[in-house]
Amino acid sequence: MKKSNLIFSLIITLIFLGNNLIAQDKINLIVLVKYKTQPATETQALEALNKLIDQVKNEPNYVKIVMHVDPNDKTNVLLYEEWSDEEYYKGDHMQTPHLQKFITDSRNFLAGPPDISFWRVLN
């Protein structure tokens, strides 16, 4: 009887942990940010984005950012971002001094504002 209680408890614990991991994926916000650089400013843009990402990593609710560059057209840059709080991302994150500075400075190397889209992971 004790062995079956232990097995039952273990199964319930595993189900609980699995459901929590699934719930975490559902609450994380996925953000795709597509940039187009001005001609011949790809290196400057990537350096500025790397500097920005280094600062963003210290923000609350940051999970990860992965930068991608189109191998056929290096003026296309995509950031895959993951955040634990949508409200923070759309509010406080957008007002941080480092992001505001990047927005101002980016006029020198980006062709225009980025295309930003929001996604959720479905299991």
Plain-language structure description:
By secondary structure, this protein is α+β, with helices and mostly antiparallel strands. The chain has one domain (28-119): Alpha-Beta Plaits (2-Layer Sandwich), CATH 3.30.70.100. Helices cover 45% and strands 24% of the residues. It contains 4 helices and 4 strands. Strands 2-3-1-4 form a 4-stranded antiparallel β-sheet. The longest helix has 26 residues, at 2-27. The two termini are 36 Å apart. 11% of the residues are buried. The mean pLDDT is 89.
Could you give the topology of this structure?
Layout: H1 2-27, E1 29-36, H2 42-56, E2 62-69, E3 76-83, H3 86-90, H4 97-105, E4 115-119
Antiparallel strand pairs: 1-3, 1-4, 2-3
Notable traits:
123 residues, alpha+beta, 4-stranded antiparallel β-sheet
